[in-house]
Fold this sequence. Notes:
The protein is α+β, with helices and mostly antiparallel strands. Helices cover 51% and strands 7% of the residues. May be involved in the metabolism of insect hormones and in the breakdown of synthetic insecticides.
Amino acid sequence: MLAIVSLCLVLLVCSWLSRRTRKDAPKGSPPGPKPLPVFGSLHLLGQHDTPFEAFTALSKTYGDIFSISLGTTPCVVVNNFDLIKEVLITKGGDFGGRPDFLRFHKLFGGDRNNSLALCDWSELQKTRRSIARTYCSPRFTSLQFDSVNRVGAEEVNTFLAEIQKLPINTPVDIKPIVLKACANMFTQYMCSTSFSYNDKEFQKIVRYFDEIFWEINQGYAVDFLPWLLPFYHGHMNKLTKWSTEIRQFILSRIIDNHRATLDFNSPPRDFTDALLMHLEEDPNMNWEHIIFELEDFIGGHSAIGNLVMVTLAAIVKYPEVGDSIRKEIDAVTGNMRGPNLFDKAAMPYTESVLWETLRKASSPIVPHVASVDTEICGFSIPKGTMVFINNYELNVGKEYWNKPDEFLPERFLSPAGNVVKPTHFIPFSTGKRTCIGQRLVQCFSFVILATLLQKFDVSGGDDVAARPGCVAVPPDCFKLILTPRNPPVISSD
């Protein structure tokens, strides 16, 4: 009762503040819906399955750029490709900030700027990205790409051995095994370290990473109504626990060994060595920067595991897609070996399935925040305004795609059979804050998907589905039925 009374008082006070704020709004602001006291226009988002569907619907009324208040946070939504390019590329320097959500601070030791993805842009973050670029964006002809291929090929053998322990022709939970394979690919490539799938501590950390990936892909009222924090006390403590235990695992099971064996007179063995060496050479870098950067990139394995699961859900729904992938695999490997990354160029359909999955998932780009007073399309955008990039519309809008509601991997194939991506398709964002690890996502998801479908037919029940506007699936998600292919694939191992 006390909480209800307090809320009513807050509503009365904020009603006056809202009217005053609306009156004093800067001239030239984009049009938009009139906000309610305290809550702004949060109620409009609740009328749709995802916030980005709501943004698309509102754009039909207010235009391709509009203002919206979420709680007390002033926001702008941009809905077409030209406006998105203006924000991300032409004026990328003006929109280098990230949302100051309390959850983000909890996940990164009390300061979201410890994270590469969730930090505000700065010279320090530019330096951290430059260290990572060689390892996280390997070129096809580089030694790093050879290493990615070797790590992927070795880990899928362990992955298959674990999968083959599961019962066949019955629903099984494969997501934990997929995630452990992805995690080992990252730790082996970046840290020259891998872990047994039976390692209880490793299992726990992989689960925590997956929980966090799901968490970041969700929205909560407390993000825009921070006065609700007392009601989220338990939730925030859980975030702190997950992130703290992940950090302790990385320190004790990975970094300590690297520090003890680091040779400054030799080239770095891996990304971990490169970070530790840079720590000694750059006075602007400190220990926190190193461990959080490594944590950020190791955590990227969750994105791959979830992308694989969403792709498998699509294959269950559209069995002909899985059949086409298997025909391509058989044609390239001759059923004499497993697929690898150097087969990728000869398997354009398989790659196009992953792109179509990303298009349909329409996972939202992390919002940007104006770091200076600026403009978009001539409209005034004050410093601190949160900017939502509605790539949902870019991914599923009829203006951009033929038959956007259908799952058609062929849309990414040229008449010559090569993979082509439209310029407006930016699942990993674009500009200086584009996802630096996207090439690893593409490589490891390809090898896991191709390996699994070479060995098994995949099916499932009615519960096999993914949420629109989200590449994440819940940590405890649908089960799949794996049926060994007949005749069995002959392995050269």
